[in-house]
């Protein structure tokens, strides 16, 4: 796949086949993403790859917390407010996604069911949890974003699908405890990884983008 095609065709995948992903393939993805640029080549990322029994155990822990209504205690707090233009994009995203799935505005039960799918990793056989040292600042957060996009693109290039999930970072203490991760590492984001099930309902929705000219000033 050409690089430009990969960038243009990657989408979040929220329905996976049960087919396991080999360690060799996961290593290939990690290796390709590790070629990402970073501030003074600092490479701040640390990754936990979770499959098999550990995947099931962690999924249950996170699912139970989310289903019980436990409040998020994310290391990277969610924004409290957005500038107006951005706020409207997030609302359009939510509304269009539920519309594509035929879920009504007031159908809170179904909306909650869909939210909880996050914690089942959308049935993906592999989950990744991505950390960086708590003492690092915004430049490293930028490096993390570049690395994480690299993971999604490398996976896509190998015929796999990914969904980045802030929701998987809602309960970082539970993740650290289950995976024996030291306290100095903050959980930045989680990601489901597997072979896409293109027939899955949750993969019906395709996100849109604002036009290039709406975010670019030309001189
Ligand atoms: C940092 C980050 C956190 C995200 N968290 C979630 C999440 O918790 N659950 C989910 O289903 N999608 C999540 N997404 C996926 C976005 O909704 C998705 O990238 C966006 O709507 C654009 O769609 P696309 O990835 O299909 O192009 C997240 C994406 C990013 C980059």
Automatic annotation (TrEMBL):
Pfam families: Nitroreductase (PF00881). Its cofactor is FMN. It comes from the Bacteria. The keyword Heme does not apply. Residues 8-195 form the Nitroreductase domain. GO terms for molecular function: oxidoreductase activity. Keywords: Flavoprotein, FMN, Oxidoreductase. Belongs to the nitroreductase family. This is Nitroreductase. It comes from Sheuella amnicola.
């Amino acid at each position: 796949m050409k690089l430009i095609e990969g960038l243009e065709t990657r989408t979040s995948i929220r329905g996976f086949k049960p087919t396991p992903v080999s360690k060799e393939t996961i290593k290939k993805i990690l290796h390709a993403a590790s070629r990402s640029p970073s501030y003074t080549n600092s490479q701040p990322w640390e990754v936990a790859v979770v499959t098999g029994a550990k995947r099931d155990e962690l999924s249950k822990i996170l699912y139970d917390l989310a289903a019980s209504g436990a409040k998020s205690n994310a290391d990277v707090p969610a924004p409290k407010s957005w500038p107006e233009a951005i706020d409207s994009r997030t609302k359009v995203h939510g509304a269009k996604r539920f519309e594509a799935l035929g879920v009504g505005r007031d159908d809170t039960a179904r909306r909650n069911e869909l939210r909880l799918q996050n914690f089942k990793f959308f049935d993906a056989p592999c989950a990744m949890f991505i950390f960086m040292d708590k003492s690092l600042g915004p430049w490293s957060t930028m490096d993390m974003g570049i690395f994480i996009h690299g993971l999604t693109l490398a996976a896509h290039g190998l015929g796999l699908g990914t969904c980045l999930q802030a929701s998987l970072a809602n309960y970082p203490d539970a993740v650290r405890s289950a995976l024996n991760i030291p306290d100095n590492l903050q959980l930045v984001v989680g990601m489901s990884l597997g072979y896409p099930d293109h027939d899955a309902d949750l993969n019906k929705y395709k996100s849109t983008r604002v036009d290039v000219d709406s975010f670019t000033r030309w001189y």
